[in-house]
Automatic annotation (TrEMBL):
Residues 9-53 form the HTH dtxR-type domain. Homodimer. GO terms for molecular function: DNA binding; DNA-binding transcription factor activity; transition metal ion binding. It is found in: Cytoplasm. This is Iron (Metal) dependent repressor, DtxR family. InterPro entries: DtxR_MntR_Metal-Reg, HTH_DTXR, Iron_dep_repressor, WH-like_DNA-bd_sf, WH_DNA-bd_sf. GO terms for cellular component: cytoplasm. SUPFAM superfamilies: Winged helix' DNA-binding domain.
Length: 128
């Protein structure tokens, strides 16, 4: 499943914030992404209309099962791409995180999948 770049950025932010805190609020997403609260509200409305977050996101943003599935797919590629930028290109954790998000949102899915496979193969060779 392919989401637009905005969806991916917000879904990643929601997932990361939910791992750090029980409640994910609009203000947390705004600070995390460096965007305005009205922008967050607008995107959350789109995510709710697409079935990725529950409608009642004013108090706390919660992913639906469909949203969880989308995040799982995103992170299956994100983790390897992030590893590539951090371990292979020696970018800082913050830079590699930012670049990995840009990569998975801007490059075609098949290119992301190919990089993912290369990283996995290379890491397996290092471990062997």
């Amino acid at each position: 499943m392919k989401q637009c770049a905005g969806y991916v950025k917000y879904l990643v932010a929601i997932k990361e914030l939910s791992e750090a805190d029980e409640y994910v609020r609009c203000v947390n997403i705004s600070k995390h992404l460096g965007v305005s609260r009205p922008s967050v509200s607008k995107m959350l409305r789109c995510l709710a209309n697409s079935g990725y977050v529950y409608e009642d996101y004013c108090n706390s943003v919660v992913l639906t099962p469909e949203g969880e599935k989308a995040v799982e797919e995103i992170f299956s590629t994100f983790n390897e791409v992030n590893t590539f930028f951090h371990k292979f290109l020696k970018l800082s954790k913050e830079e590699s995180h930012e670049q990995a998000i840009k990569f998975i949102t801007d490059f075609p899915q098949d290119t992301c999948e190919r990089l993912r496979k290369v990283v996995r193969r290379t890491l397996k060779k290092k471990d062997a």
